[in-house]
# Entry
Amino acid sequence: MAKKNYIFTNKEHPRKAIMSTILGVLSSASLILAAYLSYVDKGAENMRYGSACFLAMIFAFVGVVLGVLGRMEKDKFYLFCYVGIALNLLAIGLVSLILYAGALL
# Structure
């Protein structure tokens, strides 16, 4: 009979990290959707797309802060911290790429 090793723990995922991941998904998805819809409109500038990108940028900055705060908590699982920070940094990079591409034109 095989020996089964069970480890019981009271660790949990920080709520700040889960919120950071949710904000990262929302901001990355809204940036990708705004870029796609602008492409479909043949590059037409629409105020809605700009405001969506602005809100996504705010969400991304808040998400990075929440991810770091969640990572600083002791005796927790850190998966959502790292995923949230990565998604939010991706969103900030997408905003930077959009602004850089707009400055070149």
